[in-house]
Amino acid sequence: MKLAAFNLENLFDRAQVLSLPTWQEGKPILEEFQRLNSLLNKPKYSSTDKQKIVASLKTMGLDKSDGGREFVTLRQNRGKLLKRPAGKPVEIVAGGRGDWIGWVELKTGPANETATRNTAQVIRDVGADVLGVVEADNRIALRRFSDQVLPMVGAAPYEHIMLIDGNDDRGIDVGLVTRGAFPICSMRSHVDDEANGSRIFSRDCPEYEIALPSGQILLVLVNHLKSKGFGSKAASDAKRRAQAARVRTIYEERLAAGTSLIAVIGDFNDFPDDGPLDPLLKSGSSLRDVSLHPNFQGDGRPGTFGNGTKTQKFDYILLSPQLVQAVTTAGVFRKGVWGGKNGTLWPVYQEMTEAIHAASDHAAIWVELNI
């Protein structure tokens, strides 16, 4: 069977701030978005809080109308957060979270049609029996993509599709699709796992049990760890390390319970030598990175994101000892990634004539297993 992981970067709709040409352009917007929602969730708004909320609303373009500018919208479903007197400054009228129901959300826009087709081509050409998907809009979008878009590029739809909403309100969830011979027989979510009063996972760490034709069970944990895109490096690193440590604990608990075929896959948003992934990659872990396996077919580029440099290795397939023994071949598929300024670092699909046509900034990673 072939197991793969691919960051789709959304199929049909994507938060518009995530579609900017670079992370640096979107970073201030995402940071302000996070800061404002944190302020709005306080039980009581002090005078200082209200000043900060007003300043943030102005920064986000929400001082004039709930519709804001290009990237965000203010929802006031019940009660009122503010009033905008004619010719006067914005005034926060809510005394705290309990006085109104609403939030600030990111505006979405349609994904590029050519990019969506190229995403389908990547999935067709990788040909995975079991595919972990990252940054998928939702289960319905994933099902429609499978049923409608995959056949357009000559690929069969996937028979089994599972995804539940995670903790990220940008519509970038993680899920799993499998072929008919590899049914999903159970799943367990970890959206509510907590440490120090905060949810651990930025999205989720779902566990999927897959029934193999041999009668064995393959356990796949799909992950999308905390990004480096916004927030301080120290805070992001600490969050990512906590997530990696929790995944390691889950993995070891399943091993101890007798499950021997375990894969931890997805976008970990960090490279091996940076530290936050040590609980998974070092520190006595028995998980092994498939890209270090002697049967891995490398192309001279160690990374999986962007131009494939060493510090751009974000996507992983980690295998338990028994699965390591079952590896026959493995590799990275880059044909859907726009490499370099002009997209000339490696062969790409003929439809990719500019960066916006790329299936993703991430290459798909795959492994064939004799199980």
CATH superfamily caption of the largest domain: Endonuclease/exonuclease/phosphatase
Q: Quote the average pLDDT.
A: 94
CATH topology of the largest domain: Deoxyribonuclease I, Chain A
Structural class: alpha+beta
Radius of gyration: 22 Å
Shape: globular
Assign the CATH class of the largest domain: Alpha Beta
Beta-strand portion reads: 25-35%
State the end-to-end distance.
7 Å
Strands, total number: 21
Instruction: Please tell me the CATH architecture of the largest domain by its name.
Output: 4-Layer Sandwich
Structure, explained:
The protein is α+β, with helices and mostly antiparallel strands. The protein has 2 domains: 2-14 and 110-369, Deoxyribonuclease I, Chain A, CATH 3.60.10.10; 23-108, no CATH class. Helix content is 24%, strand content 26%. The chain is built from 7 helices and 21 strands. The protein has helices spanning 23-40, 47-59, 113-126, 139-149, 233-256, 278-281, 321-324, and strands at 2-7, 13-15, 72-78, 82-83, 91-92, 101-106, 108-110, 130-136, 160-163, 173-178, 184-188, 194-195, 198-199, 207-211, 217-224, 262-267, 288-289, 296-297, 315-319, 327-333, 364-369. The protein has a 7-stranded mixed sheet, covered by helices on one side. Strands 11-14-15-16-19-17 form a 6-stranded mixed sheet. It has a two-stranded antiparallel sheet with strand order 2-7. Helix 1 runs antiparallel to helix 2 (47-59). The mean pLDDT is 94.
